[in-house]
Amino acid sequence: MRNTTQAPRKSRPRPNLISTSLLLILKRAVAFRTDKGYYKDTELDGAKVWLATDLGSDWSTGKDSWTVIHYDPSVTPEQKAAFNDILGQLYPMKWEHADVDTQAFSWKVDTKTGQAHARMDNGKGEVILERVKGDDPAHEVVVHNLKYWTAQSNNGFRMWKSKHEAFEGHGHNFSYDGTNGFLITIHFSGQAKTAPAD
Q1: How many domains does the chain have?
Q2: DSSP helix, strand, coil percent of the chain (3-state; round to 5)
Q3: In this structure, is residue 45 part of a structural domain?
């Protein structure tokens, strides 16, 4: 008689791969919303992170640089640990000053009106972008074939000019209008770091 019993399949580890949409102002603000992804065994779908930052006077050395990482309250401790690994690999900079905080914020992109808006619930941070109008108003201005930091790939830099950006907290305060900005969806696969031994 034929034995039809099959050995149980071994589960494969999930790849450390995320697809995340970013709303950015060059040099000052980055608002993340993860569309879909895993890191180790942690699901990251919908996780939101806001970076208020200044790359400093010398990007190559990180001189005078600082960053404040704001996690939305919905982000779990496991997701925070994952993003601590991811952000360090995506932005391999040596920050002179780095802080972590928890702050709720909204994140919305309206392609019909051509406006993107991210705002902290406490009113201490805000980014408003407006879509750049090209020769053909029916199509966005998108720059392809350009790398974003260490991300393996992206869907192109969507040119959305900053109408307003502001942040106040942890000893930092800035407010600007009319600076460069863009929207981008990146795909990032990082190397999961091993937890230190007790």
Answers
A1: 1
A2: 5, 50, 45
A3: yes
